[in-house]
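Notes continue from the previous slide.

Worked example: a multi-chain complex. Inputs as given:
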Amino acid sequence: MIELQDVHKAFGPKQVLTGFTLTVRDGETLVLIGYSGTGKSVVLKHIVGLLHPDAGEVIVDGRMVPELDRAELNAVRRDIGYVFQFAALFDSMTVAENVALGLRNRDLPEAEIVERVQEALALVDLTGRRSCRAGCASGWGSPGPSPCGRATCCTTSPRRASIR
Amino acid sequence: MITGIGRRAVAAVEAVGRLGHFVGDMTRALPDVRTWGRLVAQQMRRIGVDSLPVALFIAAFTGVVLALQASYTFTGAVPLYFVGTLVGKTMMLELGPVLAGLALAGRVGASMAAELGTMTITEQVDALETLAYDPQSFLVVPRVVAATAMFPVIVTFAVATGIVTGWLTSLALLELSTAQFLKGLKIFYVFKDLWFGLFKSATFGFTIALVGCRVGLGTRGGAEGVGQSAMRAVVYSAVLILMLDAFWAVVLL
């Protein structure tokens, strides 16, 4: 379960979140909709610990995210697939290397990594572009989250996904 | 005016504090060898091998100029074989490490700041974090380790190149024989000349990489921010190299 309780966040003089409260139960699908700059991404970044609240609590599976050390935070992050709005791909790596990156720090055998990457690329119809540099990501079709980002998210088998 | 001075002083202290914090974070990431270990070789090639031509080019012309200026200065008052002494000592102790350091502050420091700055503003650094990587382990430590290890190698080649071009200049333009040049080169040589320069260059490499990474990861804004970061990395690195140069001269010589 994910809980945000009375979260406040400001960037300089701009108050983005003022007493934001949200609960997402296991198995629930929730969509945050709002104008640009209203704090949707800020909420998601609090959940994965990329931002810390000025006040309030962010709790994932009973763990207070802002108080976790790096090892504990990484454990939380391994359960969350996060797809960035503008792909955030490593353009010095190929598509397959980008997708595999999330598996490389998990003590998995190479054969399993290759298999899971192939499955994820097939899922988003990128099998034929596995060796392309991620820098050629422009022109990958539909607007919205990049297919490579979605494949990266799928391949790590997260318990929950956050898509911007 | 006093307020302005105070504000700048506070900003400077804060900057030092942030750099100290950054070094602390990097030190905490050092045990994560599994992440950074496999990335070091690639950085060593980029920082070391790819930078070698620039360093050698500078060192080659420095050797020529040193030999000519030494003979111009000595003008009969000092035996000409001291050209070898001056070329060797100056290349090893000072010009080899410092000129290579300054040139690579531009090439390596700016490149790191621009690369990491672009990664920061395009959320690649955030993406790394969400994949449970520590950006310090993945981005900073491999660069700092590679730069610290490769700068002495680059400087070794630069010193050798400078001495060789100084020797060739002496043969061609100063009517100095190889035996005389070597006599001058060896007469006051002590092993400290070499290790002092190489140790100094390792600290320059560490500083350039550290500053490039810190400035790059602190980038804000868009393309302009990346440009600012690259410029800052070069300026800060150059200033720190000159300060370190003086510091090591006071402490070790």
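Summary box: The CA atoms of residues 27 and 160 of chain A lie 8 Å apart. Chain A has two domains: 2-78, 95-159.
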